[in-house]
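tool_call: predict_structure(chain=1)
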Amino acid sequence: DAVEPVEEFINHGKEKFKNNNKVNFNLRHAEESGLPSKTYDIVIVLSGWHWFRRTEAIAEAERILKPDGYLIIADINIERKAGIVKDTMKIIKRNRKKYKVDSRLHINKKEQRIINFPVSWIGEWQGHNFEIKDLYKKSYRQEFDREEWIRRLGTYRSLVEFKKKHRRKTLEKIDRHLKEHYEDEKYKIRHELSVVVLKNKN
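tool_result:
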């Protein structure tokens, strides 16, 4: 079962898994998933915890997990020093200001972190009786051509908050900039995956 609050991304997921009828997509929020209680051995959150109302989300994870089930939270960050990424983020930042996009992210960027997870999150998980079983990060490089990079940005957290028409215009501007300033080649972009594995001790 997959839970996603944005219909556009539900449709994207259905297209990705069109040959796999074992995945059920639910247009719901993580804080109120509608999934059955004490049913799941594992709940996975990928690049989503910073969007959640965390107290409600962890209570919902506790509700749907079996006792001793696992909550796995993963986040992926892109290194912003590379030319293509740096230019991309500058355009996104300018357009956030232009289109007056307010952030819904529930995160304090200045807070101390342990392998990219804010220490307040770790305290909240432990406070809800989730025991940390593993905590690690892995760096890797992923190759994109220009079109692949633009498609990747379509689901990037900094653009998700844009209105659909503003997101499209921003992606078009990025595409024009890359055509003008970079050769049509493959870009190797460094990513960092951070993962925490939590055991439900409730």
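agent: The longest strand covers residues 130-144. Proceeding to next step.
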